[in-house]
């Protein structure tokens, strides 16, 4: 594979008179070793279909194309398309689509361009400003995704893998871990991008679960409790929950917390997924 070296990247940007758009979170990878490691983390087989979000100049796309059966690359910035047509011209298993990933029905796109596949993978060096909504878009919509490999800001990687009680632990941690098992694969220095981002990054792997790791009777109630607990982090659980449902008094919540075996003076941010599930199920039963 002819890599997109820093010189080639500058040459492409110059020849196409391309202006980097901060608004689209454009930081292009120029380090082959990191690209190789991202592709390895995706554990691709030659029969796999992979959807790449934001191919940029195509450096990651080229390597994905060599490992997967089919690559579908969604790029929002139409001014990158002529560059991608050049860098991906000889890669005939790549389909390039101008699209906003946040508004894309991934199952439909894969069905259209890859035919019927049971499952597919997602690989992305994500623009930081859409990381959380995009991860939730992948997970909440029951797309047939098996594995997601994403580069995110280091701080987001810490939030995704945070433990209860830590300052990074929050509603995003719970939501993502509800749908997927999460692990940080490796850290990525700022120096491997053009232009250099302000902060360090990390590659995170999400293996989508067949079902949640805890039994939850009503998903909406579960997430309503999680949201309330983290919206008012400084409050005790009892005070935070009192805001969830006006039909329930403090005494009602006290009773439910007692039934769940959870000390009402704890803060919501100390509850793990299992404790949130027990409490939410009692609330659901009661309603
Ligand atoms: N994958 C390339 C790389 O690693 O060099 C580019 C990564 S750059 C951080 C993010 C890319 O995502 C840019 O090409 C940007 O235009 C694209 N992008 C931003 N928002 C997007 C969206 N909502 N849907 C699809 N692509 C998007």
UniProtKB/TrEMBL annotation:
InterPro entries: KsgA/Erm, rRNA_Ade_diMease-like_C, rRNA_Ade_Mease_Trfase_CS, rRNA_Ade_methylase_Trfase_N, rRNA_adenine_dimethylase, SAM-dependent_MTases_sf. Its EC number is 2.1.1.182. Specifically dimethylates two adjacent adenosines (A1518 and A1519) in the loop of a conserved hairpin near the 3'-end of 16S rRNA in the 30S particle. May play a critical role in biogenesis of 30S subunits. Belongs to the class I-like SAM-binding methyltransferase superfamily. rRNA adenine N(6)-methyltransferase family. RsmA subfamily. CDD domains: AdoMet_MTases. This is Ribosomal RNA small subunit methyltransferase A. It is found in: Cytoplasm. Residues 34-210 form the Ribosomal RNA adenine methylase transferase N-terminal domain. GO terms for molecular function: 16S rRNA (adenine(1518)-N(6)/adenine(1519)-N(6))-dimethyltransferase activity; RNA binding. It catalyses: adenosine(1518)/adenosine(1519) in 16S rRNA + 4 S-adenosyl-L-methionine = N(6)-dimethyladenosine(1518)/N(6)-dimethyladenosine(1519) in 16S rRNA + 4 S-adenosyl-L-homocysteine + 4 H(+). S-adenosyl-L-methionine binds at residues 27, 29, 54, 75, 100, 125.
């Amino acid at each position: 594979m002819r890599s997109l070296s820093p010189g080639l990247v500058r040459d492409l940007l110059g020849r196409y008179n391309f202006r980097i758009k901060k608004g689209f979170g454009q930081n292009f990878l120029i380090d082959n070793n990191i690209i190789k490691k991202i592709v390895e983390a995706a554990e691709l087989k030659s029969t796999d279909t992979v959807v790449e979000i934001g191919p940029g100049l195509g450096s990651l796309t080229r390597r994905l194309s060599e490992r997967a059966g089919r690559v579908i690359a969604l790029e929002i910035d139409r001014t990158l398309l002529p560059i991608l047509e050049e860098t991906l011209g000889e890669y005939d298993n790549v389909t390039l689509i101008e699209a906003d990933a946040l508004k894309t029905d991934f199952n439909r796109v894969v069905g259209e361009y890859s035919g019927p596949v049971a499952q597919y993978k997602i690989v992305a060096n994500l623009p930081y400003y859409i990381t959380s909504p995009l991860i939730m878009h992948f997970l909440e919509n029951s797309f047939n995704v098996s594995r997601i490999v994403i580069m995110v800001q280091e701080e987001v990687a810490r939030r995704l893998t945070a433990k209860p009680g830590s300052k990074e632990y929050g509603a995003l941690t719970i939501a993502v871990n509800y749908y997927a098992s999460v692990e940080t694969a490796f850290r990525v220095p700022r120096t491997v991008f053009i232009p250099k981002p302000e902060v360090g990054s990390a590659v995170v792997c999400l293996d989508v679960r067949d079902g949640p790791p805890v039994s939850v009777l009503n998903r909406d109630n579960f997430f309503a409790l999680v949201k309330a607990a983290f919206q008012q982090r400084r409050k005790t659980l009892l005070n935070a929950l009192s805001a969830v449902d006006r039909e329930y008094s403090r005494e009602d919540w006290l009773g439910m917390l007692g039934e769940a075996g959870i000390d009402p003076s704890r803060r919501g941010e100390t509850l793990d997924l299992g404790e949130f599930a027990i409490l939410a199920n009692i609330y659901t039963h009661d309603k």
